[in-house]
Amino acid sequence: MRSPLKKPKKTFFYCPRPPLVRAGDIFHVPRLKNTLPEYTYHFHSPVGVIVVLYVIDPFVLTRVLLPGESGYRDDPDVKAPIRPPAQKQVLCINRFFTAYFEKRAVPVPWELLNFSGFTPLERLVWKKTADIPFGYTAAYSDIAMAIGRPKASRFTGSALGKNPFPILIPCHRVIRKDGGLGGFGSGIDMKRKLLSFESALLQPVLA
After folding, report:
1. pTM for the whole thing?
2. Which DSSP letter does residue 203 get?
3. How many CA atoms lie within 13 A of 175 on its CB side?
4. Which of 100, 107, 123, 147 lies most in the core, judged by the most C-beta atoms within 10 Å?
């Protein structure tokens, strides 16, 4: 099903956020020390193990990696403990993925995501993409229109290809105007799995 870009009714849960960050502030970019160590959290999902990378002090996610994505590595013999200062925030991310795979609409924890190195326009593309409800799709051209750049479909596709937080920011819900799936960082098979899980392919996506 294709959807207008509107915000669905969401399941509420609280995510502790770093100090001085307003809730939902996607344009806040925390200043991180180059030497901060990166930790991992593994979430076992119906589509495989999702690897979440994060730093602490302040706590922010730096990447979410799905099976098939460049840089993905899941070693079942390595169990990385959750760092004590990050337990509440990691629990929040766990609740997000749990709710998603229970097919419940959940808010994006913007204030826990690190967008350093990306442009405001790229972040705006991701913000508009997050407005696509669970089980629906939109075209790249729809997102381009939503950001006020109707001729920027190619830029939209490029920005979505850089999305560091798949599923959290549902770039898999953006497809081509002709009904083709387009690209996806973890591969077309993973994109098809996610859309199928959401039942987004049970009806013509551009109906």
Report:
1. 0.81
2. S
3. 24
4. 100
Active site residue 171: yes
For the chain, where are the alpha helices, taking DSSP H only? Answer: 87-101, 120-129, 140-146, 153-161, 188-197
pLDDT at 204: 38
Among the four given CATH numbers 1.10.10.10, 3.40.50.620, 1.10.3720.10, 3.40.50.720, the one describing domain 120-197 = 1.10.10.10
Side chain identity, residue 149: R
Q: By the 8 A CB rule, do 8 and 105 touch? A: yes
Domain chopping of the chain, boundaries? 120-197
Q: What is the pLDDT of residues 87-134, one digit of tens each?
A: 788 888 999 999 999 998 888 888 889 998 899 999 999 999 999 999
Backbone angles phi, psi at 65, to 5 degrees: -115, 130
From CA 139, how far away is CA 34, in angstroms rounded? 37
From the list 113, 132, 171, 205, the catalytic residue is 171
User: pLDDT tens for residues 33-52?
Assistant: 555 678 888 999 999 999 99
